[in-house]
Amino acid sequence: MKNSGLWSIASVVVAFCVATAIASPAKTFTVVANFDGKNGAMANGPLVQGVNGNFYGTTSYGGAHNNNTSCSGYGCGTVFEITPAGKLIVIYNFCSQKNCVDGATPSPLVLGANGNFYGTTDAGGANNNSMFCPNVGCGTVFEITPAGKLTTLYSFCAQTNCADGDDPSRLVQATNGNFYGVGASGGIDNHDAGCPLGCGTVFEITPKGGLTTVYSFCTQPNCADGEFPQSGLVQATNGSFYGVTLYGGTGLGNVFEVTANGTLTNLHSFCPDYPQCSDGEYPAGILVQASNGNLYGTTLSGGASQNAICTSSVGCGTVFEITENGKLTTFYNFCSQTNCSDGFNPFAGLVQGTDGSFYGTTRLGGTYNSGLCGNTGCGTAFAITPGGKLSTLYTFCSRTNCTDGAYSIPALMQATNGIFSGLTDKGGADFQGCIAGGGCGNVFTLSVGLGPFVESNPTSGKLGRAVTILGNNLTGATSVSFNGTAATFTIVSGTEIKTTVPKRATTGFVEVKTRQKRLKSNVVFRVTK
Question: Which of 396, 403, 416, 421 stands 20 to 30 A from 34 (CA)?
Answer without folding.
Answer: 416
